[in-house]
Every structure is written in C-alpha cells, then in structure tokens.
Predict the 3D structure of the following.
Amino acid sequence: MPFDVRRLRELAERDFRLAWEEGGRLVRRSGRVFELRPDGKPNPLFELVQRMRQALVRLGFRETTVPMIVDKREVYRQYGAEAPIILDRVFFLATLERPDIGIGRKKLEEIRGFLPSLDESRLRAVFRRYKLGEVSADDLIETLATELSISELDAERILSLFPELRDLRPVPTDLTLRSHTTAGWFGILAELYLREPLPVQLFHVGPKFRREQRLDETHLYESWTASVVVMAREITLEDGMEIARRIFAEIGHPQAEMRLKRTTSRYYAPGTEFEVFLRHPRSGPVEVGDGGLYSPVALANYGIPHPVFNLGIGLERLLMIETGETDIRKLVYPHLYTPVVLPDEAMASMVRVSQVPLTDAGRRIAEAVLEAARRHADAPSPCEFVAFDGEVGGRRVRVRLVEPEPGRKLV
C-alpha cells in the first residue's frame, strides 16, 4: 500500500525522530516481491560522453583526471589582471566552523531532566574532541551514545538543546568549483613536464560549474566538457586547428568551422584563441568548442617552457546539434522541462487502487462493477447500467455504473 505522505510530513514537523521510526515500520525487510524491468535505457548525454572518450583514445590521447576544486590563486596565475572578472562567474566553496559548545548550569538541568545520571565530564570531553576535529560530525551522535552509555534518541535530544549546532553559518574559503577544465590542466602539465618525454597528449571529460547570470535555453550552472591538451617542443596554432578538425571528424562532424576570436582570454597567447562552430538543423551556427595556445606567461608561472595546445568542447551543445533540440534544459533535465505526454495504456498502468473491500459482500460488488465496466465500456453516453442488485447486511442494495455527460463512453 502507498505511504500516507501527508501524515508522515505532518508527523515529521512535530517529531522527526518519531516519524522516522514509524516510517521504518512501513517498509518490508523480507520476501521477494520485486523484479527489475527489462527496459533499461541510457542517457543520450552520457552516450555522447562515451563516444567522445573512445574517439579521443583512438586519436592517441590519454585519459586523466583533472581536479574539480581549484584554489582562486590558480586563476590569478593563469589570468593575471583578468582574474577578478573570471572569478565573478565562479562558485566559491564554504565550510562550517565547529562551534564552542558551552554547557551551563541551565543546560545541565535540562539534560538531567531526561538523563538524571548524566556524566558531565564525559559530555564535555566529547564536545571538546568534536571541536578539535577528533570526532567527525557523522560520528557525533554515535560517540555520545557510546561514551555516555545512552540511546541514540537521547544523544539527539542532547544536541537539539544547543543552538550553536542549529545556527551554524557557512564561512567562505578561497576554494572554487572549476569554471573551466583549464584551471586544473596547468598543475598537471607542470608535473608531467618533469616526469615524461614530450609530446604529452591528454584528455578529460567531466563537468564544469559557472554562476551564470541567467538559466535559459543555452545556459546551465553545470555543463559537461571534453577537454584536450597537447604539450610539445613545437606546435603551432595551425597544428591545433587541425587537431580540432580531426576530433570533430572522428565523432561524425567533419564540417566543423574554425573562427579566430577578436578578443583573447588571458590564459591564451594573443591572437591564438578560436571557436568551433557547427550548424544546428533548426537555428543555424552554434559555438560548440573553444581552443588555442596557452599563454607563455601563464605557462611560465608553472615552470613550463614549451607550448601547449588546448581545446574544450561543450557536450550539451554538441548534443543539441545531433538531436535538433533548441533548449539545453530539455536535454539535461527532461523530467523538469518537457511536457508529460502519456498514452492511455501508460496512464492505466500507473493507476493503483488505494482501498479494497474487506468483506465477502464488498468483494462480490467490486467484481460485479468490474465485469459491468468491461461489458459496457464502449456504450455511448449518457448511459446507466446496473452492476449489482442483491442483499448486503440484510438490506437491498443496487449498484449502478453511470456516465451522465453526453458524447462520451461509459469507460
């Protein structure tokens, strides 16, 4: 039977622990009642991710992992004076500082109201170790329960008395979520320059995060990028463009067009940044990639004395080209941005009976109603059919199926 979600929500607002325990009684722990449906389906974005990974390996690139979290100082090393503008679109990470938890006389009296034998010194010791980081937040309730010899419920009740734990506020740090994969490449290349012979040909496919000014048909906070770098003793912009053409041809888009940008991001050398365009079947040319030669100044900040070519490909935009979709949100979040269209069979399969008859007479009536509905389903309306006519509990009962609205059918 379905859960009574309204009741559970109301109970949780009054007493979360009680609602949690009651919820535990609603789920079954034994018996084999479920089998997986045999109609699995991949996500088109991750199918493209896989195609891209395989294509880059075929072309000679080696896959590696690029850090997701980047210190803002790396952005200054790469962008110089342009860094503040770049950081404006970056998500900064924050942490929660562990509070000093004061245990005054009034608090002790409240706790001893439900734990008369509380060992105050042990409680203070656990809170002190928590503040010092010797007890993790995940383990705090279990540590209190174990070291004070109390239940988890009583440990939760203790913590609920301290507003210092309820009113924690995030404290910003200098760590950011990468807004472009380049932010992590420089450090990797600096290490590999000392470890491996040239050329070094690497790629990474993963998400990036940008604090966009708006979320719309072409902008999301999170998007997926395929990023490649080539570090060599000699490599030209023309070489880089040819690499880009080969990559797009390998994934089925030999018609990619390269256009030099009028302005250049500061982590690229002047006049070397270009964009890659593909023609969308419905809306014309769409920028799907960006590449160039890293600035020797940025490379020098990492001790790299050789040129590096970089290319980034926006996978959601590439998928828009391949599918003809014009709204990136519908590709990534179809459950939120596409209308629900269900055939009658699908809707019927989702219908469940919330209550069933418990008596023999009730079951007979239900069967009679079902049989009458099947027999007269296509009868034109308005119409009325007797489904059951008999005795229930010593009284005469007649059950009818009725469709009063004209121009329809009974079912």
Summary: The mean pLDDT is 92. The longest strand covers residues 200-209. Residues 360-375 form the longest helix (16 residues). The CA atoms of residues 95 and 171 lie 5 Å apart.
